[in-house]
Request: fold
Amino acid sequence: MEKYMSLLQETALFMSLSAKEIGKVLEIAREVKFAEDDIIMKEGDFGDTLYIIRKGTVEVAKCLTMEGMEDDDRAMEKNKVFTRLDESQHAVFGEIALLEDTKRTATIRAVTDCICYEIRKDDFLRLAEEDNQLGYRILLNLARIVSARLRKADEDTIKLTTALSIILKES
Amino acid sequence: MEKYMSLLQETALFMSLSAKEIGKVLEIAREVKFAEDDIIMKEGDFGDTLYIIRKGTVEVAKCLTMEGMEDDDRAMEKNKVFTRLDESQHAVFGEIALLEDTKRTATIRAVTDCICYEIRKDDFLRLAEEDNQLGYRILLNLARIVSARLRKADEDTIKLTTALSIILKES
Reply:
């Protein structure tokens, strides 16, 4: 457990937290197991939980075109973008759920059998209200994670608009 | 000032903060004036300040295609997207600077003479470290603002990819 703690201290979400603070977070976490091929969360579904991968690999799939625009499932598959996360990256997913009541922005599938820590929004907010230092540190990390994702999304928008403008000029 | 305080309590950044806490934030803020047409910040420049509009209107311009792809300035103008912010929305801009050392993601121009509160990242982080309750509350708001912007950016990506896929099918 001690070794695992020091691993968690290196994650983007727990950076700069003390081992004691991380322990408090793990107290509100529930260990959950998923079998290979299980869908852990589905894009568009409502969700109020964040996950930290303790063991295993998951695949993140994001639909890139509007719902109903595609003719069949195969076309849908082609328009998804996939990335993989595993325990070596101490990966976290579903983090937006700690901030907002909103739909999942990606589908997460277990590529191998997985063990994850699951943290519920309400439990997290209660803990952060009780221990503002812990709350402040995690929120700063969380805001930075979301901000980095926003920067990446902005870059994607620029690339796509550029591609569109080149195609429209040529046609 | 009291009336202004209650206005600030309605802003996305200061929501759920007490008047006393907002007062602490304003203590580290500097009042800055901009004349009509001044460029307050330029996309791509490094910046470490956040602004709250106290009086006036600004225009937000974001370049939508890659640098150097366009032939002339007029083309560049066409590929920018504009929105306006003013004091009636108690608008905040440059908020990413409180989280990361990163480049400005938009150009902000004063449409009228403006008075803004300017808050420096270092001063903000010092205050938040000193007063974790205040830090926690602002960071929760800030993370939610960034998260909402991320959701919007994701939607834009889906629209653009859909447009691209339709055009490519037709051509």
Residues 2-170 of chain A form a domain with the Jelly Rolls fold (CATH 2.60.120.10). The first strand of chain A starts at residue 30 and ends at 34. DSSP finds five helices and eight strands in chain A. Chain A has one domain: 2-170.
